[in-house]
Design goal:
Number of strands: 7
Strand order of the largest sheet: 4-3-2-1-5-6-7
Radius of gyration: 19 Å
Mean pLDDT: 91
């Protein structure tokens, strides 16, 4: 019998303070995250501008603050982490997006989590993801994900000087 592959989910990453300036609400570092494109469903693209436009175009949704993050990295997770993330998202779907009940919200949250699990399945831990969202001609949201892979091999940096002992 083979062991189950470890679960891999996304966590928000903050390389600098820019998310605080570009989003109305920035996610804190190290939150579990999903794409969060559902938050823009039904919006008129012509009405989406400024910080909302930036959140639409480039933001992952953090599941603790429900703020946005430009970067998310692959992290190992436990089944308990997954269940907690799904529950937090389901509660958010009820309170902020009008889900009819917790059962429907949990089903939608599980779909969001399944998408992230699939996205991260083959990616090494610490792979950083970015997202680019657009609306197509029919008004459907399209997402493209790009990765920044962690460095591998040696050297992980360039040598700029050498220290030599004096005789």
């Amino acid at each position: 019998m083979t062991a189950a592959a470890p679960l891999r989910l996304l966590r928000t990453v903050r390389f600098d303070a820019s998310d605080e300036r570009v989003y109305d609400k920035a996610a804190a570092p190290d939150e579990w995250a999903v794409s969060g494109a559902f938050a823009f469903a039904g919006l008129d693209p012509a009405q989406v501008a400024g910080k909302l436009r930036q959140a639409f175009a480039n933001g992952f949704l953090g599941l603790a603050s429900f703020g946005r993050s430009t970067f998310a990295a692959v992290s190992e997770a436990t089944p308990g982490d997954l269940a907690a993330a799904e529950r937090a998202l389901a509660e958010h779907l009820c309170s902020a997006h009008g889900a009819p009940d917790m059962e429907a919200a949990l089903a939608a949250a599980r779909d969001e989590a399944a998408f992230v699990l699939d996205l991260c399945r083959e990616a090494p831990v610490n792979t950083v993801f970015t997202v680019w969202r657009t609306w197509d001609a029919a008004g459907a949201i399209k997402e493209e994900f790009r990765t920044i892979r962690p460095p591998s091999g040696e050297p992980l940096h360039a040598r700029i000087w050498t220290v030599v002992d004096e005789p």
